[in-house]
Amino acid sequence: MSTLVRAVVLDEPGGPSRVESLRLLDPRAGEVRVRVTAAGICHSDLHVRDGEWERPTPMVMGHEGAGVVEAVGPGVSLRVGQPVALAWLIPCGRCRGCRSGRPWACSDSPSYRHRLLDGTIPFQRPDGEPVLPYCAIATMAEATVVPEAAAIPIPDGVDPAVAALIGCCVSTGVGAVLKTAAVEPGSSVAVIGLGGVGLSCVMGAALAGASRVVAIDRVAEKLETARAVGATHGITATDDRAAVIEALLEATDGGPDYVFEAIGLASTVELAIEVLPLGGTAVLVGMTPQGVRAGFEVYPLVDGSRRILGSNYGFADPAVDFARYAQAHLDGRLPVARLIDRRIRLGEAEDAFDAMREGRYTRQVIVAEDPG
User: Fold this and answer.
1) Domain check: are 75 and 200 in the same one?
2) Domain that holds residue 55
3) What whole-number percentage of the chain has pLDDT above 90?
4) What pLDDT sits at residue 370?
5) List of the chain residues with pLDDT < 50
6) What's the number of domains the chain is made of?
7) Is the pTM above the cut of 0.90?
């Protein structure tokens, strides 16, 4: 059996996405159908849309989402009606990363194959052509079928748009601070790039008790948002690299203990490494297009005991971290809602990609109800 749903489909990299009606298979053993109530527009989606990352097509877009359990297959412990956030990296449970308690390091996740655990593709066009689910969760759809391990219960009372962001950008940014870098109270932190992930790094730094949190971006409004979610200083980025470095060193007494690069540009990756003081750490969170290379001088890195860390998904263990971040939001310690500055409909996804290229919003979220 199947259900008819509308979904944002990408037919080929670099081409426009469009909304289509697809058949969605019913959940089988170990699977759940989730009615999607919110789906974030993430820069990773744009990399796929624009062909900067190689991904198979046709594909239902979206990997940042939340919803309500609508139906369950045999052996599933989740209940119908339960609110969930969707995890885009689904652990296989068997590989070395999973066995060592590091699901974020899973090497055999179905998310990388864009299929369910057994290779099944849950979406089909009316003529029977399969349409892959991005990261095996395909959140830019009215509903989706996912493995139970991808549907993480969220406390009641969390705005679905907030839950969607917890599923990707919040876990990526906050986790980079709290888990990947394990920032100590009293540390100084700089964050380069203030999209949803960068602002989540700012929130994470504030939650970690950093004494100075310096936010850097070209857009004045984003600097204001950064101050509202925990930044103590703001620096307007310009083409004058020397001036930006001077301002950052002055704000952090000679350089930040931790720098989080949250854009994914070679130039800002190099900047993050360049401004490190002795013993400082650069954490690379932003994702570049495939094939991009950056360079740094090796001697001062080694001589100064500086570190470079890569942080994928904020070292997330979704089954544990999603509820923790959601509770911190409900307690007022993670103001995630401040990141959302545009709520749109499913049919506006392509316009949202255009807006993202232009840097016009912090986080756009597709919501199930009419946003008015």
Assistant:
1) no
2) 2-167+315-367
3) 96
4) 56
5) 371-372
6) 2
7) yes
HEC readout, the chain: CEEEEEEEEECCCCCCEEEEEEEEECCCCCEEEEEEEEEECCHHHHHHHCCCCCCCCCEECCCCEEEEEEEECCCCCCCCCCEEEECCCCCCCCCHHHHCCCHHHCCCCHHHCCCCCCCCCCEECCCCCEEEEHHHCCCCECEEEEEHHHEEECCCCCCHHHHHHHHHHHHHHHHHHHHHCCCCCCCEEEEECCCHHHHHHHHHHHHHCCCEEEEEECCHHHHHHHHHCCCCEEEECCCCHHHHHHHHHHHCCCCCCEEEECCCCHHHHHHHHHCCCCCCEEEECCCCCCCCCCCCCHHHHHHCCCEEEECCHHHCCHHHHHHHHHHHHHCCCCCHHHHEEEEECHHHHHHHHHHHHCCCCCEEEEECCCCC
Q: pLDDT per residue over 27-70, tens digit each? A: 999 999 999 999 999 999 999 999 999 999 999 999 999 999 99
Q: Clarify whether residues 37 and 130 are in a common domain.
A: yes
